[in-house]
Amino acid sequence: MESKTLEHFKKLFIEIKRNSALENLGRNEEQDLALKSGDEIDQTNRERDERLILKLQGRQRFYLKKVDAALDRIENGTFGECTECGDDISESRLLARPTADLCICCKEEQERGEGHVLYENKSHTLGKQILSDKINPSLVNTNPGDDNIVQFHSKSDLNNINTQTFAR
Fold this sequence. Notes:
By secondary structure, this protein is α+β, with helices and mostly antiparallel strands. The protein has helices at 3-36, 43-76, 91-96, 104-121; strands at residues 135-142, 149-155, 161-167. It has two domains: 3-121, Four Helix Bundle (Hemerythrin (Met), subunit A); 135-167, no CATH class. It is built from four helices and three strands. It has a three-stranded antiparallel beta sheet with strand order 1-2-3, with no helix packed on it.
């Protein structure tokens, strides 16, 4: 990567860190004033706002860690290289997401993997939970032409099969 481009990103990251520090100073002063003013009726709103602020601060800290990592990569001479495959990260990607450490191909692959894990953890029963361990999901039947009825068959013993019908 050209030294002019590296210098641009280095200045950008330093500016992001400086603005974040100034923003935190202003926010702390505002929080102190908010705690000193108001009445008990506003306490719930303040607590909600504080939770939101904490969440946003957590995101900001996470982003600043990425900024620090990008600055380290600039110093090490590896900025703009994919940490996964070693290929160059396109300049257009870096302009859109300066802290990117993966090329677009590796990032897409990572997201596909994450999506697969998230999908596996989701319910395949439209939000309904099967609370009994006696129900065998492989024995689920749906009535043809009737999308609103699902029948679950469970085996309480080898000779007796129970059928339960649920509306979706």
